[in-house]
Each structure stands twice: as structure tokens, then as C-alpha cells.
Amino acid sequence: MAVRSPLSVTFESPKSISTMPTSRWRRFLDGFRSFITWSNNPTSSTPCRRRILHGEDEEQEFQLSNTHCLSSYYSVFVARLAIMVMLAILIGMLTILTWHFTRVYTTKSLNILAYDLRFELLQRPILRMWNILNSTVEITMAQVKLSEFVISHYGKPVADTQPEQLYEVMKNLTWALFASRKALNSITISYKNGFVQAFHRDHRSNNTFYIYSDLANSSVSGTQKSWPLASDHGWQDKSGDGNISAIWYREPLHPITGEKTGDAKQIPPDDLINIAGLSELHDGGASWHVAVSKFTDSPLLSAALPVHHPSDRSITAVVGVTTALFSVGQLMRELVEYNSGYMYLTSQEGYVLATSTDSPLLRNSTSGPKLMMAIDSEDHIIRSGAEWLQKAYGNKLSLNQEVHAENVMLRNQRYYIDSFFLNLKRLPLVGVIIIPRKYIMGKVDQRGFTTLVILISASVCILVVGCFCIMILTSGVSKEMKLRAELISHLDARRRAEQSSNYKSQFLANMSHELRTPMAAVIGLLDILICDDCLTNEQFATVTQIRKCSTALLRLLNNILDLSKVESGKLVLEEAEFDLGRELEGLVDMFSVQCINHNVETVLDLSDDIPRLVRGDSARVVQIFANLISNSIKFTTTGHIILRGWCESSNAFSNTEKLYLDQKEPRPALKAKSKQHGSIAKGALKKDNKITLWFEVDDTGCGIDPNKWESVFESFEQADPSTTRTHGGTGLGLCIVRTLVNKMSGEIKVVKKEGPGTLMQLYLVLNTTVDGTGQHCQIEFGEHSLMVLLALNGSTGRCIMSKWLRKKGVCTREASEWNELTQILQEVFQGRRIVEYGFANECSTSEPLRANQMRFAPKEANPQNTRTSNIIIVVDIGLLDLSTNIWREQLNFLDKYHEKAKFAWILNHDTSNAIKIELRRKGHLLMVNKPLYKAKMVQILEAIVRERSLELQTKNNTSGTEDLHECLEIDHVHLDVASSDDSDTTDIGISNLRRIDACLRGEDKDQTILISNPRHYRIVNSGKEITTCKTNLNNVPQNPNILLRSENVENSEDFHFESRGHDKIIKENNASKSPELSEEMQPQPAKSSPMKSNNCPLEFTGESLKEEKNLKPEYPFQIGPSSDIEESNFKLPNEKEASTSCELRAKRKTKHPGKKRLAEPPCGSLKLNEYQESSGSPSEQDCIASRKANPSQNSLEGLCVLLAEDTPVLQRVATIMLEKMGAIVVAVGDGLQAVDALKCTLSEECRRQNTPQQDGEIRSQTKFHEMPPFDLILMDCQMPKMDGYEATKEIRRYEAGTSSHIPIVALTAHAMSSDEAKCLEVGMDAYLTKPIDCKLMVSTILSLTKRMA
Amino acid sequence: MLGLGADRLRADMNRLLALLFHQGVLDEQFLQLQQLQDETSPNFVSEVVSIYFRESEKLLRNLRALLLERESSDYKKMGIHLNQFMGSSSSIGAKRVRNVCVAFRAASEQNNRAGCLRSLELLEHEYCYLKNKLHELFHIEQQRVMASGVRYPMLD
């Protein structure tokens, strides 16, 4: 499609969507854009489209389908998008859910575990702390108790006398305790008097010291004996002051044994350890606090307890125990080392007591080391953690508040921070653990991340793949949809096209009647016009031309209608019995006339195994061959046309093969093919009487190009277009043939052929009749020891014929030209030459009488000679030299052999009458028209064989009868040929042959005239019976058939003229003999007139069929006198009867002339007859049986018809019709009258047979009893009083007793098959529809009456 | 002059006949009828046609009476009449009348009263047309016979 809207272009352009993703998007965008523009302003795009597709329907349609595609494209696109989005959502959700569940549950469970872990981790250092605290307190308590005991023991009244001892005991005791606890940093005892004893372990140097103060100082300090319990300050101050003032000594000890390892040294006060004094006691109970010392890095836990004097409960000393807290830190370190992370313990104030790190816990200040705040810790993590805590929860952590924080961002790392509160009395502790998230969740996070990555990548992959799949799928679907839409539109278009073509066919088929009727009217009117005698010659010529053209048009119309009928399935083949051989013979007869003009030989070669009768549509079968043969004739200028036929069966093959010896080349292929068919056909043959008949039409024309072998059977197809110019034709013929052949379940094809020309091969499947397959001829000629000398022009036909004859056991010789014939003749008749000469000389006269005498003379003279002569000479008239007068000499030459051999002449259709008469005069009575085919040959042979036997029997007959008999003999030959059309197949034949002659009409001028105007022809001929030529000449200017007439005029010079209608010969004979052989003929007239009357019906039928048939209808005439044939015997009484009625009618006629002369005859020819009648001699009136107004119409001569018809119009019409044919009509008004009339006549039949009726004019309905017996009843079906069916039943009932059976023909207005069935059921014999077709009626009546006769 | 008149009349007749054929009023049967006419029955066609007219008028009258008389028309009787009408029409070759008869009969078989009435109207119309035309034809024919009647004795 060249023109396309821009809209559709955008759609068509991105073809490679599926391959390129970018183009897909572009396409989408384009599509979307165009969609928007399309939907936004459809009005703007349509006008331009309309402009482009101005008036082009198809393109409009395409456009429509395009917009259809567009919308479908959008729907596809939207669907595609929706599916993709849904897929994405689904996959995303799946991914997220998967990730979420795996991740969240793991995290949650891990968090729980981690929380437990953290709690556990922190719990341990706190427990350790607790332990340390407890142990410290326990030691302190133990020291206190021991001190109390020792003091109470020694220093009851603490006297100055025993302090030394007391101190020594205390020292040992304290050592024991100190040594037992390694963790202790120091134990101090400061006495009330200021004396201090202390053991100190320096963990760094791993030294143990004993520290004591100078006793002197104690005295100083002793000045304050009574220290109030509550005044801690004073005590502390004192000691502090005192300490400064006091002198301290340090004695290194062996760490294990406690022995003194060195000398006591005085130590500076700043090196002194922290000595618990009274000031540290708060409420008299145990107290502890965190302290620092310069000897340790870690803070110290110091506890102090007062030692009460057992008696007065006064405080005598203060015991202080200090424990280093670094073990807690160590534990923490160990734990952290194992678990990673950070821990620290702080006091409530925020001072760091222990950390898991190595960072210092103390801060060196000017006033010695101090505790550090966690915020100030040197470790970054701890510091930042502490800072975070402080920030989050403020400075003050309320008691019991625990903090569990996750995902705290410290220095770019996530940590868990948990703090626990340990509420010790006086020393509340806060534990903080900082664990990196990585430690707990590291793997999980990592896995989670990889899982997420994998999931996302997988889902992305799936999404991509899914989208891709969807793309492919939907693009497939959309493509399919597009294709389907296209397909649908195509189907639609096809359906429309088919419908329209179907409409055409149906239209034609339906129109068949409507088309034919006006044509028939045109032709009918033209006929009227042609009859019109006031036309000028030019007008007449024009009208004749129009007539021809309209006939041709009708023929063409018929062809087309046939074709369309077949195409629309309306052609129904009828199934009737017919004689295939006769149909084909008739066909060949007809075409041979044409062929002779072309110098082409037509040969019919049917194998003997073809059944005589087959069932099928004879009209169509004949049409097939007519078309094929006319086609062949058209293209064949010289050579031959052979129509071969054989029956397909295994044994038939041997026959056909023999027959086709001369055609060896095409056989093998043909045989192989037909055997294939044969196997199938044979099966069918057995089952249902089907028979496959093969035919070939073989010509020697221009041939068909092999690549056109198939196409020639198409409509309006011709092998070579140029032939149309030369030969005309529409090219429908072969198409019709093929459809018909196919309809008969056959096939037709062109077959390869040796030599020039075409070989068409076809087979038909036809039903055979139930009574079996009657063969053509069963007569065995072999036993008659015949010898046939074939002197024929056409070599093909001669060869075939001679082969066939030889097969039949008849000896043959062949001659193709005159010289050859003479040679052969001389060879054969060498011995008898001398005898024959005498006769040959005598035969030179042309006098008819003498010829007749001569003809009979030899036979009488040499009966034995004829008996022994088995030689039959078949001579083609073409062998004689007809151009000059030599043929007479040649005939004379042949006459020599006349008595020894039988001659059969093959005449051309245009053989001049002079020759025929000459032949006849010389006694050559066996004459057949070309072509010579088997049936004719059989007739010739049969005639000769019969004649021979007849001669032996009727030696003593008079010459007159002999003569007559001989005349008849020839016609017998024609008769059988024609009788197939006359008697057997009248009904079928008429329609059938009408068709053929319609085909021929345009092509053969002579024939056309003969066919279209048979009546005129007849009339002229009958005119010749009277010897006055004036009437003929008078006739000339008025009769349109100039051609014929001129011929006749020419012939009329000769007294013994011979017309083509052979029946005339008889009339001539009769007529001519009446004056000349009156003596001889005397016994004849009475006899001959009945013969004539019997002859007439046949004559009519023959004429109604066609010219060829007209030549021969002499059947009853022939049979009549040949008394040896049995058929004639039972006819005699009837003839007698008929003769009487004839005479009677003839008399009646004589009364009319006066009337007739007044009446105006419709055309000139009738006048002639009138004249002839009035001037006719009495003897002639005897011969010419009934009214001779129109001899051809006297076919119903002598019949008496009872017409039962209530409608007056019909009654009148039918009466006239029948009377024109020469029948006597008795009309009655209803069935009852008809029955009465019949009863009357039947009862009086016997009487009337003896005394035949003399009054033939009676027509009144009341005088039935005077009527001759009815030969036939025409019965209307619907009548008042008693209808046709009832009447028929009544008549049949009446007849039941007698042997008679009167034929009843039904007349009905409704032409339905059910009516026909009903008619036949009640006992009627035939059936005619209204309006009455004259010819059909006559043929029906004849077939019925003849059967009866 | 008289001979010329006969020719002209004959031409007129043929023209009229052609017209009737063309209109489908008549068909070949009429030609057959004409062919049957000869010196033995010189007025055969007009005779038959006048019989036909007589009969037809009777039939038409009957049909109309049957249709109009009472409500329940006797369709069977009507069918018989129509058959007769059809038979006689087809015999003289009155094609159109016959076709209408066929339709009429079909209607009567179906007891279709309205259809029958319509057909009757049509039938009467066709019949009148046919009658007029045939009368015209026979009139010309008569004139022609009279005209040619002068000529023939001269020729004899």
C-alpha cells in the first residue's frame, strides 16, 4: 500500500522492537505520542487521510484495519506494561520479605543473645568487685576481732608497761592475716595512742614492707587520750598532723615468711601509705571508700573498722584494710580479650574504678594521684561512650536505671552500650559495657548484606528476564493478533468475493429461463418475419442474418448457462436408458457432413464390448462428444478425427488392443493408466452395475501446446488466442465438457500423441441396465463365408473397418483408389469375365423402365450365381471421378460384377441426385451415407445376407413385387440407423438432437435451411409428385429457400428426381408407376395406401428430429410387404382397418376443395398443395392418403383420438392441433362422457370391424356409437363430474375383462413429478403438460399407438 | 393501394405481437396457435381466444364471488377454477396471466385471503390488458384479412 497515514507509519517503522531495547522505548514513546495526537485531534488527521485515500475503497479498508491494529497495539502495550509492573511488584515484595524475615528474626534472636551476653559479661566484674569488697570486709572484721582480743588480753588496763608485747603480738597476728590474703594491699592498725602498725605490699616491686611509726610520737599523740568518737576531724587532723610530725619506719619483709630482710628505714611522710584513722569511721560501723595511692596504678578499696575496747566499748584502734582493685580490671581485660569490647566500672559519681583497657585510671595532680572521671579517660572509646551516656541520660544516673542502647555510633562504629547499676552500700557502682556491633552482628550484617545483594540482583535478573519474556510473549501475541486481524479481513474479503461470484453463478442459473425466453421470442419473431412474404431481398437477407446471429447468441447463452448451472450445482443429470452407440453414430453422421467440407475423415470406432444400452444423461453425453468433435473439426484441416470408445474391463482389453494395432504408440501408456483405473472400476463394476467407458477423440489438427493441456479446460481459455480470429468460439466448450465429465464421475485430459494433432482421453462412469449388457451385434458373419472388398477413400476408417471385419471372421480386401479397385476386382473375378460382358453392354441405357427390367433380369437368370457370390463390394462414391463424366463409365465397368457381387455405396451427403439416380437405375440399391461405421456395416451385411436367403425363397415372385421389395431393402439400411431416434428414444432424442442441431445451425448453411424449414422442403418435394413443373416455378419467388429450390428446379427436369428425403423415392415410384406400370400396379394401390398411412407417422417424427433422420424413416413400409419377416404378420389386420379409414378421409377431402379455395392459405406453399389437390388425378388421390394440405403434418393419419377436456379453449386448441396432424378427434367435456364414449365404441367394435364406417365427418359428441374405435385418449386430469384419474380408473376397470388396452395420455397444468407419478399410478400411459407442445404430443402419441399396433 | 395497406397492417400486427412478446404478455404458445390456423380453420385463433375470453370472464366472476361472498372462502373450488384458468391461459400463451394464476393458486393453497384478493386484482388487470391487446390484434388482423382478401382472388 503506497499511501499510508503518518500515524500508521510510526507504527510500522520500528520493526526490530524485540531485538533492541532502545528502539522499544522509542517505539513506546512514539506510539504514545502518536496515540495522544491521534486521540487529541482525530479530526485533524482524518481529513488529510481522507484526502490521500480519496475514493479508494480498498485503501480505506486497509486504513480501517490499520486503526484497528492501532487500538489493538495499544491494548497490547498497556497489557504488557501492566504485566511488567505486576511482575516487578511481586518480585520486589518477595525479595523484601525474604530479606526481612531472614534478617529481622536473626537480628532479634541475636540481640537477645547479645543482651544476655553483655549482662553476663558485666555481671562478672561486678561479682568480682563484690567478692573483693566482701573479702576486704571479712579481713577487716577478722583483724578487728583479733585486735579486740589481743587488746583485751594485754592491755586491760592498758599500761605502759606492756605495750611492747602487745604490739609484737599484734604485729604477728596481723602478719598472719596479711600473708593469708595476697590480694590485700595493706593492713593498718592505728592505735589510740597514735602508734601505727602497717603491713604493705607493693605490687609493682613485689616487696612487702612493715611500716610502723615511732613510739615517741605516740606519746605525743597520746596527749589527746580521750578522743571523742564523733570527732573524726580531730582524730584525723591529729593523726595527720601527727603523721607529719611522726617518724615512720619501713622494714622490708620477706613476702612469704615475713622475716625481716632489711633494716628499717625511716621514710619520708610522702611515701607513706594511706593509714586509716579514726576520721574514716563514720558511724562506728565498717566503712569503705575508694582510695588511691601512689604505689599502685589502680584505685584501692579501703575499709576501716574501729576496734572497741572490750570493756568500755571505746575505740582503741582503727583497722584499715586496703585492697587493690586492679584484679577487677584484670578480669575485665580477660573478659574483653575473649569477647572484645570495652568495660568500665565507675562510682556513682562517675569516677572510673576499673576498665578493661590499659589506660591509667589515675590522674596525677599536684596533690597526688586522683581518680579520673570516665569522661576524661584516655581511652577514646570509653571516653566517647561515657560522653554519649552523659549526653543521653544526663549527668545523673538515677539508681537502678539500666541503659541498653544499640547502634550507638562511636567513632564511626556501631556499638552496644549497656550499663548496669550495682547498689552496694556506700559504694554504688555503675558498670558500663561497650561492645562493638560488629562482634555480635558482624556476620549477620555481612550475610544480610550479601543476601540482600544476591536477592536484589537475582530479582533484578528475574525481572529483566520476565520482562523480556513478556515482551516476547506479548509481541508474539500482538503479532498473532495482527496476523489474525489480517487473516480475518482476508477471509472476509474472500468470502465476499466468493459470495459475489456465487451470486453471479446463481444469477445466471436463475436467469436461465428469463434469458432464454426473450431469445426464444426474438427467434420466434424473426421466424414470423422470415415467413413474411412482403420483405425485400435485402431485408430478407438481413433478417436471416439476424436470425443466425441470434441463434449463435442463444447457443453462447446456453453454453454459459450450462456452465453456470454446473458451477452453482443446479445441473442435475437425468438417469435414463439410452443407446450410446446410436447416439454417437448419429453424432458422427452429423459431424461428418461438416468434415467433408474440410476434407477430414470422421471415424467412429467403438469396441464391441460397449453395452448397447446404458443409463445416464444422454443429452449431456452427446453434448460432451459434440463439443469435443466440433472442437476437433475446427482445428483439423486435413486428416482424420477418430472417436474411439471401449469398455473398461480386463477382457475388453484384448479386443481393444487388436483394434488399435495401427495405433501402437499411445497404447502402452494408456494401458498402464487405464489399468490403474481399471482396478478401481472393476470393483465398482461388480457392485452396482457401474461401468467405466473410455473414449478418445483423436484428431490430426494443429494440436495443443503441452503446457496448455491443463488450462484449455478452463473457462474462456483457448490454446492459441489467434485461433479466435480464424475459428471463432468462446472457449467455453471444453470447460463445459470437463465439468460434465467430472459430473459423470469421469476425467478428461489431453494425452501425448505421436504425430500432429490432439488426443483427448476421457472416461465416464455410467450405469448399465439391469438386463445386462446387450452387445451390438451378435450375428456371426463368419458362417456366411463373406468377403468384403473395401474400396474407401479414408485410410484410417478403412483400416479400422477391415480389422474389425477380419476379427469377425469376414475376409476383407482393401482398395484406396479406382485403379486398385479394378485390379482387385479383376483378380477376384478372373474366371467369370466373359459371361459378364454381355450384360454390361446392355446396361448403358438410362431409361427407367428398362433399367428396372434389366435389374431384375440377371437375378432371375442367374439365381444360383447370386447365391454363391459372397463378395460384397463397398465402394466410396469418392472413388469415382465425379468431376467429369467418367464416373458413368466407371459405373458401367462395375456393372459387370453386379450379379456376382453385391455393391454397397458409400455416399457423401452432397452427392448429387443425378448420381444417386444413376446408381439406383443400375440396381445399386444399397446406399449409405458417410461415414461408414460398424453399425452401418452390420446393416449392409445383414441386408445382403437376408436378401440372399430371400432370393432363394422368392424365386417365383413377380417382378413388380420384387422391385418394390428391392427398393425397400435399401431403406432398411437407413431405417435401423434412424430408428433409434424414431422409436426407442423419441422423448430423449428430441431435446437432445435439438441441441445438436442448434450447434450446427450456424455452421452448415444447407443444413440450417433444411432444419429450420423442413416443411417447405417437404412441400416442394410433394409438389414434385405432380409432373407439372409450373407449380414449382410458381413457387420460387415466394419461397424463401432459394437454395433448395434451385436445386429442386434443377432436379425437376429429370423425371426420376431423387431428393434427400428417401421416402420421396417411394412416392415417386408409386407415382411414376401409376401411369407406366398400371397393369403391374393394379393390385398394389389398396395395399400401398395403408403402407403410406403407416409410413406417415414415422415420416413426421423423422422430420421433427433432424435432417439425417429424415432420410430413412421407412420402417413400417418396409416391413409391410416383406411377408417373410414375422413382424409384418400381425400388422396386417390393422393395416386393413387403417386403409379403410384413409380412403374414407380421402373422400371427405374431396368435398372440401371449393371451401378450401375460398379460404386463404397462410403461405404460398399451401396454395400449391391446394392446386395440386384439385388437379390431382383420382389415382393420385388414392395414393396420397388423406388431406394433403401439409404432408409432413399427416403423422397422425388414421388415428382416432378421444379428447377429454373441460376447458373449451384447450379443447379447441388440442382438437385443431390433432386434426392438423390428420387425426380424428372426438372431444368430450368431462370424464364421464369420455368413459361413456369409450364404452360405446368398445361394445360396437366387433360389428364395426366387419362393416367399417363410411362417414368420417362425424364429430358430434352424442353419436359415439358411430365413431371408429379410439386409438388413444387425451385426458385432462381436472374435470367436473369425473376427473381424469377417476375416468382412467373406470376405463381400466372396464378393460380388465378384455385384452384391449387403450393408451391414455394425461394432460395436466401442474408440471410436477408427483402429478406424473399419480397419473402413471392410475393407469395412464403418458403424461403431457399444458401448454401442449405439438411435437412432444405427436411423438408421445406415436410412440403409444405404434406400440399398440 | 390495398395490397400496401395489407402489408402495413401486417407490419402493425407483427409490431404489436412483438410488443406483447417483449412485455411477456404472450409466449411461444401463441405462435404455435397461429401456426395451427390455416385455410381449414381460418379464424381459429380468434375463435379460440374468444372462447378463452368467455370462459375467463366466467371464471373471474366465479373467483370474485367466491372470494367476496362469505368469510370462509372455498379455497378448493377456487383452486379448481384457477387450474382451469391456468390451463386455458397457458394454452393460448397468455404468459403473464398464467404467472399471476400461479401466484394466485399458491395464495389460495395457503388460504391467504389477502394474497388472493391482491392476486385477483392483478389477475383482472392482466386479463383486461391482454383482452384489450388481443382485441386490437384481431382488429388489425381482420382489417388485414379484408385488405388481403381483395388481393388473393386477383392472384389466383
Please sum up the structure shown.
The complex is a heterodimer of chains A (1349) and B (156). Chain A has 1349 residues and is α/β, with parallel strands linked by helices. Helices cover 56% and strands 15% of the residues of chain A.
Oligomer: heterodimer
**H and E order of chain B:** HHHHHH
How far apart the termini of chain B lie comes to 18 Å
Q: What is the helix fraction of residues of chain A, given as a range?
A: 55-70%
How many strand segments of chain B? 0
Describe the structure.
The complex is a heterodimer of chains A (1349) and B (156). Chain A is of the alpha/beta class. In chain A, 56% of the residues lie in helices and 15% in strands. The longest helix of chain A is centred in the first third of the chain and has 98 residues, at 57-154. The two termini of chain A are 79 Å apart. The model of chain A is unreliable at 1-22, 34-56, 217-244, 650-687, 772-777, 832-868, 956-1192 and 1248-1265 (pLDDT under 50). Chain B is built from six helices and no strands. The radius of gyration of chain B is 18 Å and the shape is elongated. The interface between A and B is large, with 44 and 43 residues.
Describe the secondary-structure layout.
The complex is a heterodimer of chains A (1349) and B (156).
Chain A lengths: L5 H7 L8 H20 L1 H11 L4 H98 L8 H18 L3 E8 L4 E7 L4 E7 L1 H7 L10 H14 L2 E6 L11 E3 L19 E5 L8 E9 L6 E10 L1 H14 L2 E6 L4 E4 L6 E4 L2 E4 L8 H14 L9 E8 L2 E11 L4 E9 H95 L5 H31 L8 E4 H19 L1 E7 L6 E4 L1 H18 L3 E9 L2 H10 L7 H22 L1 E10 L22 H6 L5 H11 L3 E5 L7 E10 L18 E5 L3 H13 L3 E5 L2 H11 L4 H10 L5 H14 L1 H6 L2 E6 L9 H10 L5 E7 L5 H9 L5 E3 L4 H20 L5 H26 L1 H16 L3 H8 L1 H11 L5 H6 L6 H11 L10 H14 L1 H4 L2 H22 L1 H4 L4 H5 L7 H25 L1 H6 L5 H12 L2 H6 L16 E5 L3 H13 L3 E5 L2 H13 L1 H6 L21 E5 L7 H12 L8 E5 L4 H10 L3 E4 L4 H15 L1
Helix pairs in contact in A: 4-5, 4-8, 4-10, 10-11, 11-17, 12-13, 12-26, 13-17, 13-27, 25-26, 26-27, 29-31, 29-39, 34-37, 34-46, 42-44
Chain B lengths: L1 H22 L4 H9 L7 H26 L5 H18 L2 H15 L3 H43 L1
Helix pairs in contact in B: 1-6, 3-4, 3-6, 4-5, 5-6
